[in-house]
């Protein structure tokens, strides 16, 4: 967007009645969307009202209201998006305040999602931000179906995999609206990435699982015998000493007493080996695996995510993630500055998007054994030694032997006693690289 | 907003007819463990037990070496797998107090692929083979039990005797070990 330098506060509206509609406010946005750009696709982008209305009407879900989330919410609101939702389960910690600029000292202890929502709404009249304080797993597909685009600013791989699998699972051939572009930002120190997934069309986050850097780990025996660094002493206290001396206490990394205990143990070990540098805050950092967050890395990655959201919503320029083109931008700021944008290929044997669940009609009165037999006859499967389960239940496992024994009685049971109508059955077989999934519908 | 849908429809239409599932789905971690279990090739000397057969993310591996210094012992390892699998390795612990250079008295195991060398392409079979290998070739250069490693390095016969004593539930260097004879 065209940049104008204005002294802080000039554009801030304080006259209460502004609903964000003043023409001057969106002058540059309207100019940008009011004419074709050098790279806009003339068959897709019709300058004028249509893209402007798309920005106004699009409903965007932001997952995470931390370092990236604050930047993303701010960027979206200032780009003219007016319907935002934000999910975060965390509360504000004093250590967040240096970069999570939607929060103030008085907010410490309050939920991030609601404080962030309130701040953005106050600062950007006309923009509605709906917070949800809790886990993404609390919400079902009907909830996620409401949005046009989902943007993640998360620090957890588990949460990313969950939302990815959910969005891939939601794609319904009959309903174009069910395909939700997923934009994922991530940062670690001076490094980061932004990527776009068009569920089922392009490589998904599960296809890209091995792109996550593994957590650097030191061999246990180094910790146990020849520590060389203060971190080794802390990890020794954390992994070995705690188990040995406080087995019955569950380690809570937010409990100062627990951290102090680890710190003292690490300190005495460091003295023994003449290693300087063990401090309370280093202990906290190592135990909680804290990688110092760099505000500007967050800003760069969030900016990239929001640019993509803007382009997807308006079609004003080619966006990251268009099938057959680049979908992954990595950014490295710790050795000079380097970015590389490429196409991560879809994996044909991806457990999430490789083989999407097929509908299957089953007689609730028939037995699991009959179903397993029918699998051997289905042309696409012809399974030899299948393992079958639902989310909560091991239905039948051919291997290993002990599971075979405990699940064998299920073969004689009726399907209605083992599954619910609409449940997914996942099937693996050593003869196939890929899993099969069926959505069971009772006839 | 998006031209994507027309591309979707141009794609080979999938067999899915009745829309997506609304119920709780099998997680990617569960799928991967199920796949790994279907590919497990356990020799006679190993078996798995699942305390809760519906929960495949937690199980016990029983190892009964038929050669090497730990022959005729019976060792069990707990496997705890999180929803982060295979990004994170399984957590594996020996459930007996044993005398072994690479396993400490708390049951922690020093095996590279369980920690610093874990990669998502590795599977449960690789971990299990790794554990078996530790009993066939205890390794003095990655010590977790320093005394045992020292014994192995300095005097293989003494080490052998100590293994025997410890497996019988005896006392080695002031530590009493669990009896693990089959």
TrEMBL record, chain A:
Lineage, highest ranks first: Eukaryota, Fungi, Dikarya, Ascomycota, Pezizomycotina
Enzyme class: ligase
Domain E2 binding residues, every copy: 360-443
SMART domains per record: E2_bind (SM01181)
Catalytic activity, reaction form: ATP + [NEDD8 protein] + [E1 NEDD8-activating enzyme]-L-cysteine = AMP + diphosphate + [E1 NEDD8-activating enzyme]-S-[NEDD8 protein]-yl-L-cysteine
Pfam families (UniProt xref): E2_bind, ThiF
Species: Rachicladosporium monterosium
Listed pathway(s): Protein modification; protein neddylation
Protein name: NEDD8-activating enzyme E1 catalytic subunit
Matches recorded under PANTHER family: NEDD8-ACTIVATING ENZYME E1 CATALYTIC SUBUNIT, UBIQUITIN-ACTIVATING ENZYME E1
Gene name linked to the record: uba3
Function: Catalytic subunit of the dimeric E1 enzyme, which activates NEDD8.
TrEMBL record, chain B:
The keyword Transferase appears for this protein: yes
Keyword Aminoacyl-tRNA synthetase appears in the UniProt entry: no
A Pfam family matched in the record: UQ_con
Keywords: ATP-binding, Nucleotide-binding, Transferase, Ubl conjugation pathway
Substrates-to-products reaction catalysed: [E1 NEDD8-activating enzyme]-S-[NEDD8 protein]-yl-L-cysteine + [E2 NEDD8-conjugating enzyme]-L-cysteine = [E1 NEDD8-activating enzyme]-L-cysteine + [E2 NEDD8-conjugating enzyme]-S-[NEDD8-protein]-yl-L-cysteine
Domain UBC core: 28-172
EC number: 2.3.2.34
Pathway: Protein modification; protein neddylation
Active site positions, chain numbering: 110 (glycyl thioester intermediate)
GO MF annotations, alphabetized: ATP binding; NEDD8 conjugating enzyme activity
Region called Disordered, residue ranges: 5-25, 163-182
Family classification: Belongs to the ubiquitin-conjugating enzyme family.
UniProt protein name: NEDD8-conjugating enzyme UBC12
């Amino acid at each position: 967007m065209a940049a104008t330098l204005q002294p802080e506060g000039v554009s801030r509206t304080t006259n209460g009645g502004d609903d964000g509609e003043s023409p001057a406010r969106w002058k540059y946005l309207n100019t940008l969307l009011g004419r074709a750009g050098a790279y806009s696709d003339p068959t897709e982008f019709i300058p004028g009202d249509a893209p402007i209305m798309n920005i106004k009407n699009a409903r965007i879900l932001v997952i995470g209201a931390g370092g990236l989330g604050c930047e993303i919410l701010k960027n979206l609101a200032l780009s003219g998006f007016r319907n935002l939702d934000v999910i975060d389960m965390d509360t504000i910690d004093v250590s967040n305040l240096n970069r999570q600029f939607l929060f103030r000292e008085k907010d410490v202890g309050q939920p991030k999602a609601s404080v962030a929502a309130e701040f953005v709404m106050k600062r950007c009249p006309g923009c509605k931000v709906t917070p949800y304080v809790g886990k993404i797993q609390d919400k079902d597909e009907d909830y996620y179906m409401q949005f046009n685009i989902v943007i993640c600013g998360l620090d957890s791989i588990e949460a990313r995999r969950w939302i990815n699998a959910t969005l891939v699972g939601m794609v319904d051939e009959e309903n174009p609206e069910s395909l939700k572009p997923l934009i994922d930002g991530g940062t670690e120190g001076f490094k980061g990435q932004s990527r776009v997934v068009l569920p089922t069309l392009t490589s998904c986050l599960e296809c890209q699982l091995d792109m996550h850097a593994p957590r650097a780990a030191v061999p246990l025996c180094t910790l146990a015998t020849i520590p060389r660094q203060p971190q080794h002493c802390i990890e020794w206290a954390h992994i070995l000493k705690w188990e040995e001396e406080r087995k019955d206490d569950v380690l809570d990394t937010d409990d100062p007493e627990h951290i102090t205990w680890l710190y003292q143990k690490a300190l005495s070990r460091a003295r023994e080996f003449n290693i300087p540098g063990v401090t309370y805050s280093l202990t906290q950092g190592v135990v909680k695996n804290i990688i110092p967050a760099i505000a500007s890395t967050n800003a760069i990655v969030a900016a990239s995510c929001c640019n993509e959201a803007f382009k997807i919503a308006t079609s004003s320029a080619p966006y990251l993630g268009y099938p057959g083109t680049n979908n992954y931008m990595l950014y490295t700021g710790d050795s000079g500055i380097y970015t590389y944008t490429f196409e991560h290929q879809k994996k044909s044997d991806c457990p999430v998007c490789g083989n999407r669940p097929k509908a299957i009609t089953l007689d609730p009165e028939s037995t699991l054994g009959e179903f397993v037999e029918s699998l051997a006859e289905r042309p696409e499967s012809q399974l030899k030694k299948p393992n079958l389960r639902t989310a909560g239940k091991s239905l039948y496992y051919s291997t290993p032997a002990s599971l075979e024994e405990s699940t064998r009685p299920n073969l004689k049971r009726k399907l209605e006693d083992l599954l619910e109508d609409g449940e997914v059955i996942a099937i693996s077989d050593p003869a196939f690289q890929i899993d099969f999934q069926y959505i069971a519908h009772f006839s | 907003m998006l031209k994507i849908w027309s591309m979707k429809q141009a794609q080979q239409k999938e067999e899915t007819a009745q829309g997506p599932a609304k119920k709780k789905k099998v997680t990617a971690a569960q799928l991967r463990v199920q796949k790994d279990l279907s590919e497990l090739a356990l020799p006679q000397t190993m078996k798995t037990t699942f305390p809760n057969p519906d929960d495949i993310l937690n199980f016990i591996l029983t190892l009964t070496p038929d050669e090497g210094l730990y022959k005729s012992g019976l060792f069990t390892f707990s496997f705890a797998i999180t929803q982060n699998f295979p990004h994170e390795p399984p957590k594996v612990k020996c459930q007996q107090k044993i005398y072994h250079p690479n396993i400490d008295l708390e049951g922690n195991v020093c095996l590279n692929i369980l920690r610093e060398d874990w990669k998502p392409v590795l599977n449960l079979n690789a971990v299990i083979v790794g554990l078996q290998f530790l009993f066939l070739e205890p390794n003095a250069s990655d010590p977790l039990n320093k005394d045992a490693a020292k014994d192995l390095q300095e005097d293989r016969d003494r080490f052998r005797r100590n293994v025997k004593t410890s497996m019988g539930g005896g006392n080695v260097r002031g530590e009493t070990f669990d009896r693990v004879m089959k």
